[in-house]
């Protein structure tokens, strides 16, 4: 992050913030760092487009499904302890993924990365919230945090192209090892020791229900194997397991998701809207590099370099959103407009005429929406529940990404099948997916507008009752 941004804080808090944002950068980086490398992985491992989605979804599903558990572990056993455990597992998974030994091992290693990310990410956010109490400093810190996360998503595509061209696709995972080990070694110097267990215990039935439910739901929606009945029954079983959380959590002595969070309208709204944003975010970074390489015949290096404008717009908008108010609705509208513009995807498209403008709009929209949604998802949360609240908002984005990728891939495959084979069919499929992403963005914008109106109405009534 920029030095002048961190210099607002004391040296200790600034360095801690740098470590936490670096960890979040790596976590988000790995949601998109495989995207430009997918054609190269396909050539080596011989996977279909549906199979390639599991190189992405193995990480997203493990990450999203276990985030509530990771958040609860941070609340129970201390943020630093949980952060270290997650970082160790994340680096270990990255190391295994960097060994090109076959599709099965790669997918398993991606899942291990996702488990580590699910443990360390909410712990990192809980540490940030504890070091920066509510006020302007927290807003700026969350802006830097959001900028790091946004930059991670965009930088993943850029690094994927650079590293795949220079060293091979295996190197995209080695970069997380090279960055993760120094981060791990700096923890004792920058993050205070936990004061001890905060009491309570892990809600194992709730953890199993949410993990299995989310996994079955996303796997079922993304699967193209088996009969139609099987493809219906698997996600249905996931929904049943998720619905079982309601009675399970009511009976639990120490529930995984404290009921007070579900009663917080800001937390609920933030998570629902982040779910929709995640669907769009991951889908965009999946289909754009495929279009560039399979339709426009870009090299991995060129496809990666052309993500720079999007990355710059993301970072600038995220940093700006930490200083401004009410950027959520404009951000979602910009995102929808950019996606509709990008969805033209001509067979003879050029970067300046067809990709540059929409890429900038998409980057601005994602950045302006992500930071306020993160803040909304932890708004009014008791510090005791900061870890699980941070886990929930990250769960929404990752699970949204996995759900969105499954749905948009289905749209793409169906549309491509109508055209047969070849670049024209692929382009038709990618267009349909991006139009679907634009529709999701518009739905999120409508939801954000409704929440803003309701929140404004509650504030007005509260002001009137106070003055009477």
TrEMBL record:
Q: Which PROSITE patterns match?
A: MFS (PS50850)
Q: How does it sit in the membrane?
A: Multi-pass membrane protein
Q: Which segments cross the bilayer?
A: 52-71, 83-105, 111-130, 142-163, 169-190, 202-220, 232-248, 268-291, 303-321, 328-347, 359-378, 399-417, 429-453
Q: Which domain of life is it from?
A: Bacteria
Indicate the principal place this protein occupies in or around the cell: membrane
Instruction: Give the Major facilitator superfamily (MFS) profile domain ranges.
Output: 16-456
Gene Ontology cellular-component terms listed: plasma membrane
One Pfam short name: MFS_1
Q: Where in the cell is it found?
A: Cell membrane
Q: Can you provide one Gene Ontology molecular function annotated for this UniProt record?
A: transmembrane transporter activity
InterPro entries reported for this sequence:
MFS, MFS_dom, MFS_trans_sf
Q: Name one GO biological process term.
A: response to antibiotic
Which keywords are on file for this protein?
Antibiotic resistance, Cell membrane, Membrane, Transmembrane, Transmembrane helix, Transport
Q: Which PANTHER family match?
A: BLR6921 PROTEIN, MAJOR FACILITATOR SUPERFAMILY MULTIDRUG TRANSPORTER MFSC
From the Swiss-Prot or TrEMBL record, give the protein name: MFS transporter
Organism of derivation: Streptomyces aurantiogriseus
């Amino acid at each position: 992050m920029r030095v002048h941004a961190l210099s607002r804080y004391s040296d200790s808090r600034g360095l801690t913030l740098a470590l936490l944002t670096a960890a979040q950068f790596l976590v988000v980086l790995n949601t998109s760092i495989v995207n430009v490398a997918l054609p190269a992985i396909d050539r080596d491992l011989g996977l279909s487009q549906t199979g390639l989605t599991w190189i992405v979804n193995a990480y997203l599903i493990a990450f999203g499904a276990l985030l509530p558990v990771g958040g609860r572990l941070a609340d129970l056993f201390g943020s630093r302890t949980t952060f270290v455990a997650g970082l160790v597992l994340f680096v270990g998974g990255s190391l295994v993924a960097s060994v090109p030994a076959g599709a099965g091992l790669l997918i398993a290693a991606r899942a291990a990365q996702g488990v580590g990310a699910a443990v360390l990410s909410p712990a990192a956010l809980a540490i940030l919230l504890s070091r920066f109490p509510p006020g302007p400093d927290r807003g700026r810190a969350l802006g830097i945090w959001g900028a790091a996360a946004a930059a991670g998503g965009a930088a993943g595509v850029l690094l994927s192209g650079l590293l795949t061209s220079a060293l091979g696709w295996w190197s995209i995972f080695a970069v997380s090892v090279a960055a993760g080990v120094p981060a791990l070694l700096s923890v004792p110097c920058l993050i205070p020791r936990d004061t001890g267990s905060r009491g309570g215990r892990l809600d194992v039935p709730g953890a199993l229900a949410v993990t299995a439910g989310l996994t079955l739901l996303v796997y079922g929606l993304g699967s193209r194997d088996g009969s139609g009945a099987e493809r219906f029954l698997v996600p249905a079983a996931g929904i049943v397991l998720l619905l079982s959380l309601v009675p399970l959590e009511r009976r639990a002595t120490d529930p995984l998701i404290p009921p007070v969070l579900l009663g917080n309208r800001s937390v609920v709204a933030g998570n629902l809207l982040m779910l929709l944003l995640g669907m769009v975010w991951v889908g965009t970074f999946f289909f754009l590099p495929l279009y560039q390489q399979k339709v426009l015949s870009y090299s991995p290096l060129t496809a990666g370099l052309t993500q720079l404008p999007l990355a710059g717009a993301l970072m600038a908008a995220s940093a700006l959103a930490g200083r401004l108010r009410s950027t959520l609705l404009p951000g979602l509208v910009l995102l929808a407009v950019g996606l509709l513009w990008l969805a033209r995807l001509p067979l003879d498209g050029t970067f300046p005429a067809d990709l540059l403008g929409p890429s900038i709009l998409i980057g601005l929209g994602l950045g302006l929406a992500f930071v306020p949604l993160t803040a909304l998802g932890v708004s009014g949360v008791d510090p005791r529940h900061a870890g699980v609240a941070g886990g929930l908002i990250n769960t929404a984005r990752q699970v949204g990404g996995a759900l969105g990728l499954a749905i948009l891939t289905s749209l793409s495959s169906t549309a491509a099948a109508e055209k047969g084979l070849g670049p024209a069919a692929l382009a038709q499929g990618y267009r349909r997916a991006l139009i679907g992403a634009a529709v999701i963005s518009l739905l999120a914008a409508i939801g954000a507008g409704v929440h803003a109106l309701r929140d404004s109405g509650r504030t007005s009534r509260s002001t009137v009752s106070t003055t009477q």
